[in-house]
Design goal:
By secondary structure, the chain is an alpha/beta fold. Helix content is 50%, strand content 13%. Helix 13 links the parallel strand 7 and strand 8 (287-290). The longest helix has 28 residues, at 32-59. It catalyses: D-glyceraldehyde 3-phosphate = dihydroxyacetone phosphate.
């Protein structure tokens, strides 16, 4: 009987029906002592054969997978048409939120061309509704042209343009107040990782946002180790999961269990079709923010990596 139980679990562990069906059947007819032995065996076997699946099922329950493409300062009308073509052909997993970060000048054009299941996002916006801020755009302007997403705090904004934690937090708060969903980027530089400062950096960057934001329902956090962006180097699935897990624990401690469990924490940093499936298997990785690969047909495979 024990061998039969083991076989049943191996065949059915992916849906957990194996355990439930076996439990109900055995408990109808087995003596009390044997019931205890069977239950202990079943639970231990289930743990061995499906630890990863259990983790993904329960940890990700309720968090819809999210894949964003950040086009950065790339594109023309003709290249956008090519991207729209492969996105329209897809097929794209219907259980995934798909967003592409478009250069500001092409937002309206891209929005008019993208398939209905792909949404255009701005790559930046300012903390004020209007005024003498040459070169900036406001959340109100984005809403006026039908844009509902914005990427804020990307490492290039932080380290090329010198945006501080405080400014990014103020921009995030203002964008949320105006009805945008914010993809808030955080991540450490190589020297910070080598110095053992990864957690301190991402906690500090997130804390700055938490000081300005009370409602997190329209925030997606993108963990992007700066040393892995555009370098071809990718954090291993285990490295990425470790940071995501610790960040979720921080969110639980500081903002409460509801925020921590519902928060989508996505990974960015040289994500490709070749590595996305292994990354997607991790319990606390809820999607990706993709750079260069979002300009190529392989982006479709990345969107579908959680299937």
């Amino acid at each position: 009987m024990i061998q039969a139980l083991k076989l049943g679990l191996l065949l059915n562990h992916r849906t957990f029906e194996g355990y439930r069906v076996i439990e109900r059947t055995i408990f109808k007819c087995a003596p009390e002592l044997f019931k205890v032995q069977v239950q202990t065996f079943v639970q231990k076997t289930l743990l061995v054969v499906s630890t990863n699946f259990q983790s993904r099922l329960f940890s990700k329950m309720g968090r819809k997978f999210f894949v964003g493409g950040n086009w950065k300062m790339n594109g023309s009308k003709s290249s956008i048409d090519e991207i729209v073509n492969f996105l329209s052909k897809g097929p794209l997993d219907s259980k995934v939120d798909v967003v592409v970060g478009v250069p500001a000048i092409y937002l309206d054009y891209a929005k008019s061309k993208l398939p209905a299941n792909v949404f255009a996002s701005a790559q930046n916006c300012y903390k004020e509704p209007k005024g003498a801020f040459t070169g900036e755009i406001s959340p109100a302007m984005l809403k006026d042209v039908g844009i509902n997403y914005v990427i804020l705090g990307h490492s290039e904004r932080r380290h090329v343009f010198g945006e501080s934690d405080e400014l990014i937090a103020e921009k995030t708060a203002h964008a949320l107040e105006n009805g945008l969903t914010v993809i808030a980027c955080i991540g450490e530089k190589l020297e910070e990782r080598e110095a053992g400062q990864t957690e301190a950096v991402v906690f500090r960057q997130t804390a700055a946002i938490a000081a300005k934001v009370s409602n997190w329902s329209n925030v997606v956090i993108a963990y992007e180790p700066v040393w892995a962006i555009g370098t071809g180097k990718t954090a291993s699935p285990q490295q990425a999961q470790e940071v995501h897990e610790k960040l979720r624990a921080w969110l639980k401690e500081k903002l409460g269990g509801a925020v921590a469990e519902s928060m989508r924490i996505i990974y960015g940093g040289s994500v490709t079709a070749a590595n996305s499936k292994e990354l997607a298997k991790q319990a606390d990785i809820d999607g990706f923010l993709v750079g260069g690969a979002s300009l190529k047909p392989e982006f479709v495979d990345i969107v579908n990596s959680n299937q």
